[in-house]
Design goal:
64% helix; three-stranded antiparallel sheet; elongated; 149 residues; 7 helices; mainly alpha; Arc Repressor Mutant, subunit A; single chain
């Protein structure tokens, strides 16, 4: 019996929701440990990765595109701005809105974040065949769709 199954209720040990949540917590710890030496964390990497993927965007669109609520996003952006990883400027079309874009340091952080995320995923799928890894992705997608219904 795997070690983690010895520490939890037997029904939880076979519950997909529990296992997905447990896997996410372990994944998050791995990524955070990889990013910490660079002064980053998984929470800081979220907006950085989104900006790296989609390019500069309005702060409100950044909130809409992420799982982070407005007050928490403002705090993250304040911290990222202090670390010189993002810069905010007034929107040309709406003076009340802020445009957010990555700086050179932010692009470097996005590359580190990508590497950390890929490494953690590779560790999690070690020993899986490509078909098994693809099947797991499909099953997780279905699990998420079911939960969201």
């Amino acid at each position: 019996m795997p070690k983690h199954e010895q520490q939890i209720h037997p029904e939880a040990a076979v519950a997909p929701g529990y296992l997905a949540n447990h896997a996410a917590r372990v994944f998050n710890r791995l990524v955070d440990a990889d990013l910490r030496p660079h002064g980053l964390s998984l929470s800081l990497i979220g907006p950085i990765m989104l900006l790296s993927w989609k390019g500069a965007m309005l702060q409100r669109d950044l909130v809409r595109s992420s799982a982070v609520k407005q007050p928490a996003m403002v705090a993250l952006l304040d911290k990222l701005e202090a670390l010189n990883m993002v810069q905010r400027s007034p929107s040309v079309t709406d003076g009340r809105a802020a445009m957010v874009e990555l700086t050179r340091e932010g692009h470097e952080a996005a590359a580190r974040g990508r590497d950390a995320l890929l490494a953690a995923n590779a560790k999690g799928t070690a020993g899986f065949s490509p078909q098994e890894a693809a099947l797991m992705v499909q099953l997780f997608q279905r699990l998420i769709e079911n939960f969201e219904r």
